Amino acid sequence: MGAFRQPARLPILDIWVDPVNRDEAIERVRGFLRNGNRPHSVFASNPEKQFTVPRDPELYECYRRADLLLPDGIGMVKAARLLYGADLSRVPGSEFIFDLCKVAQEEEKGVFVYGAKEEVNAGSCEVLVERFPGLKIVGRANGYVKDEDMPELIERINESGAAVLFLALGSPIQEKWFAEHKDKLISVRVVQAVGGTLDTIGGNVKRAPEFWRRHNLEWLYRLLSEPGRISRQWVLPIFALLVAVAWLKKKVGMDGNRLD
Ligand code: UDP
Q1: Residue 5, in any domain of the structure
Q2: I need a surface site. Which of 12, 126, 225, 228 has the fewest CB within 10 A?
Q3: How far is the CA of 16 from the centre of ligand 1 (A)?
Q4: Which residue range is the domain that position 164 belongs to?
């Protein structure tokens, strides 16, 4: 195994993002699967997280220790460009789940899908196998396992021999689940926290059509189709403003080392 240098993780305001494009993210998880000897966490980094992660010390620690922080939102990509001139591309967690399935299929590794409602979970597994014929989904469980049944679930994951685990419990439950249980996972090498993605794969929630995605307007489509999300989308203009302030401070040499 030749040693190679990974580009450093970029601090964006109070969280971080890994400077990867989609192919590089895929190669990283392939490396985790081939060479890893422990579960590696893959979490999404986006403007929304900027406002939840730093406020929750446990979640902050999960992010700080993450093995791969995907540039999930266009906001992170633009901020990285403005603050560091970094040329990364958006790698949405909701699409990366498919990339990871493809890698698992190619590497012949088992996948365990944990999270979401029973029918959504079951439907998602069917969709994934249909899309990646031969993909070994070696186990699944809905996301409403009681605390007292957790040891049994961990045993099931271990007995399945899964190397990839998708956690679809929503944030911050999924990240905290990883922190609490990672040391008990025997065969798992990659854990992607996918939030509500299974609802778009095996449920009734529609993703934005291609046009909106191509123009980086998925956030606007979701806002227009689910106005209730306004309470979550207010973060975008504030994030942009904070990034602009950070950029200005950098420009005039006022930035402290809060970002390191
Ligand atoms: N969920 C779950 N167990 C729980 C709470 C939530 O499996 O105890 C699932 C829920 O069914 C949904 C997802 O977690 O599929 C949460 O989706 P949301 O879009 O809120 O998460 P986000 O992507 O914002 O993290």
Answers
A1: no
A2: 228
A3: 23
A4: 10-223
Written as six digits, the tokens of 154 are 């961990």
| pTM, rounded to two decimals | 0.90
Q: How far is the CA of 193 from the centre of ligand 1 (A)?
A: 10
Query: Which residue CA neighbors atom 11 of ligand 1 most closely?
Result: 116
pLDDT digits (tens, 9 = 90+) for 29-42: 999 999 999 999 99
* Segments in the chain below pLDDT 70: 1-6, 229-232, 255-260
Paired sense of beta strands 15-17 and 111-115, if any: unpaired
- pLDDT computed for residue 222 by the predictor: 78
pLDDT digits (tens, 9 = 90+) for 13-22: 999 999 999 9
Question: Quick check: is 231 in a domain?
Answer: no
Distance, in Å, from the CA atom of 97 to the CA atom of 158, rounded to the nearest integer, reads 21
Which CATH number covers residue 100?
3.40.50
Of ligand 1's listed atoms, the one at least distance from the Cα of 115 is 7
CB atoms within 10 A of CB 191: 27
**Amino acid occupying residue 118:** E
Which atom of ligand 1 lies closest to the CA of 194?
23
Measure 178 CA to ligand 1 centroid, in angstroms. Answer: 15
Establish if 253 belongs to a structural domain: no
